[in-house]
């Protein structure tokens, strides 16, 4: 309508009378992978090389803590609380610190990487590149490439972007499917508001069936 008015085909701009397409808040579904696919991709990593040991620890930490790309790139050795089984995440997206659980398998893989495969340099960051000179990951795209490559090598079919956030979404979906309270999911992901976490409830179909009303 705007074009017709602008081009002189109509003497009145009728664009304001055209109904707008509604864009509902939280209308989309979060991208996610089946938990079995993530486990299969992690199991397919060759741990006979230092790079494989690092990548396995990296993916396990991403998949079990919900940590973000920037948070894992800035993670330092002193942030790993081994005896407590916790990861201290500093200055998150919400500008606050939080503690994420370090599960047994992820902790063992991380310890194996730090003790056996990590480059022996004086740098506090946990994850380092192996390309000389070894250094922390400064580019978020490099970490995303590692995740995507490992998922594809494990036979996971990807139809969109694949990085740390995809594993974060998958973890949240898995926890919701276990019928954990929504506030626990929010704490795990470091959300300040439960409204941010609410999008994951929509993928929990068994729980939604319990509360759905019959269609008249």
Compressed to H and E, one letter per element, the order equals HHHHEEEHHHHHH
Helix content: 40-55%
Rg, alpha carbons: 22 Å
Major sheet characteristics = 3 strands, antiparallel
Low-pLDDT residue spans = none
Number of helices: 10
DSSP strand content = under 5%
What are the salient characteristics of this protein?
216 residues; single chain; mainly alpha; 3 strands; 3-stranded antiparallel beta sheet; 10 helices
What are the SSEs and their pairings?
Elements: H1 2-6, H2 35-43, H3 50-65, H4 69-73, E1 80-81, E2 86-89, E3 98-101, H5 104-117, H6 140-153, H7 164-177, H8 182-189, H9 194-197, H10 205-211
Describe it.
The protein is mainly α. Helices cover 44% and strands 5% of the residues. It has helices at 2-6, 35-43, 50-65, 69-73, 104-117, 140-153, 164-177, 182-189, 194-197, 205-211; strands at 80-81, 86-89, 98-101. A 3-stranded antiparallel beta sheet has the order 1-2-3. A hairpin with a 4-residue loop joins strand 1 and strand 2. Helix 3 runs antiparallel to helix 5 (104-117) and helix 3 packs across helix 7. The longest helix is centred in the N-terminal third of the chain and has 16 residues, at 50-65. It starts with a helix and ends in a 5-residue tail after the last helix. The mean pLDDT is 85.
């Amino acid at each position: 309508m705007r074009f017709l008015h602008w081009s002189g085909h109509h003497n009145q701009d009728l664009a304001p009378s055209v109904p707008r397409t509604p864009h509902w808040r939280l209308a989309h579904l979060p991208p996610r992978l089946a938990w079995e696919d993530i486990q299969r991709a992690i199991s397919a990593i060759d741990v006979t090389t230092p790079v494989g040991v690092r990548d396995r620890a990296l993916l396990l930490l991403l998949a079990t803590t919900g940590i973000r790309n920037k948070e894992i790139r800035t993670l330092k050795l002193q942030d790993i609380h081994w005896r407590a089984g916790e990861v201290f995440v500093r200055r998150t997206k919400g500008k606050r610190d939080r503690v994420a659980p370090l599960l047994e398998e992820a902790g063992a893989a991380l310890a194996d990487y730090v003790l056996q495969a990590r480059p022996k340099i004086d740098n506090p960051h946990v994850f380092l590149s192996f390309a000389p000179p070894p250094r922390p990951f400064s580019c978020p795209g490099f970490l995303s490439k590692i995740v995507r490559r490992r998922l594809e090598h494990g036979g996971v079919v990807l139809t969109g972007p694949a990085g740390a956030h995809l594993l974060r979404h998958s973890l949240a979906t898995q926890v919701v499917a276990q019928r954990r309270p929504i506030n626990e999911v929010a704490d795990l992901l470091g959300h300040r508001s439960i409204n941010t976490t609410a999008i994951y409830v929509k993928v929990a179909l068994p729980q939604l069936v319990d509360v759905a009303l019959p269609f008249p």
